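Support reply, case 0932

Customer input (verbatim):
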Amino acid sequence: MNVPTRALSLAVITAVALMGCGKEEPPPPPPVQAPPPPPPMVVKIGSVAPLTGGIAHLGKDNENGARLAIDEANASGVSLGGKKVKFELMSEDDQSDPKVGNTVAQKLVDAKVAGIVGHLNSGTTIPASAIYNQAGIPMISGSATNPALTEQGFKGVFRVVGRDDQQGPAVANYLVGQNKPKTVAVIDDATAYGEGLANEVEKTLKAAGVKVLPREKGTDKTVDWKAVLTKIKGKKPDAVFYGGMDATGGPLLKQARELKLAAVFAFGDGACTDKMAELAGPAAEGLLCSQAGIPVQAAGKKFLDAYKAKFKADPILYSPFTYDAANLLIAAMKKADSPDPAKYLPALAASDYNGASGNIKFDEKGDRKDAEMTIFTLKEGKITPIAILKSGKSMTLDEYAQANAPVAVAPAPTAAPATAPAAATPAAPAATPAAAAPAPAPAAAPAAPAPAKK
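Our regenerated output:
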């Protein structure tokens, strides 16, 4: 039978197509991919200080200390409640203004931060602390020294520096012991910090039998002090104490020397910076000042090296304390295994922490136990510590460093040749890092009068 050519071709094509379909295999299933890891839990920590204005250099120093601690924690890796954590620093500028301070405090509360490092000034820290307390958020100041901060009875308020009722007697007693003034003029900047510190100095001077002239005042913005200084000069004081910051203390000292006022000038920690040499020039040489804590030079080497490497500058004043404050918050969260303030607050209050500024424990008020005080002079343009006071004793910087040096540890025994199995010998513990220095040991005989007991 004859089959048409066209029909035959169609049959062949169809058969070939069917044969091809019969050999085709289904595509392999796509590879099973593991689900991406969950994003880390973000834990926010607030940092508040004046980042603009006359004392912005101190505010930035505070922020740097907290930022360094946060960055180190993130680099080391932290988990809380089984979740990886990324700490985030929320830095705010309070402009050293109480009203602005309250505004940024509420902003941080609304952002649900887990803790606060700050503020710098007592005048902003005290009112802001009430806002944090109401929200149940712990705060640690690395620089606010007015006693009123921890006298409010707030359970979540702490500080890692000493108080003005410790610092004031320390600098006043040193002034009396070394310079023996008969008459002293006291000036303050009318802030909670400046006035509070000046009050403590005045009380100590009067108790020592020194005549104190009627109080003179300026503000935290005053740069023209000539009227006040002219008035004081006529009364011929042997010494002048100023309670305020370096931005106003520098012009005060410069103008005093221009008016030929030859008295010894003493200041608190707010004006105990190298900035005084910049603002007052040669007039700053020989000034006395105090700090409610150890000098920066005595901070842990690990901290000092890390700060210099990260910020390409040396720390100024308070950054070892804000570094410790941030680390204290993180350590308490780790101990409680939670960033919930209500859960980690008990661990924070019970802290026993070796930080850049030494061993830190809190008393029932939230103050640092047995805080050091340091007396400085300005020598060749640099603030230089001359006495560190602790537990009623005085020591030089070298003596303090020696008392806080890590204990030498013998190296671990060298392993024996593998001729026969032997019992493992435990290695000796590692030496304590410099940044985790133990509390100072008793020092040699005082080189300066001890601070008055309160």
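We compared this against your earlier run and they match. Two observations from our side: The radius of gyration is 31 Å. Residues 56-76 form the longest helix (21 residues). Please reopen the case if you see a mismatch on your end.
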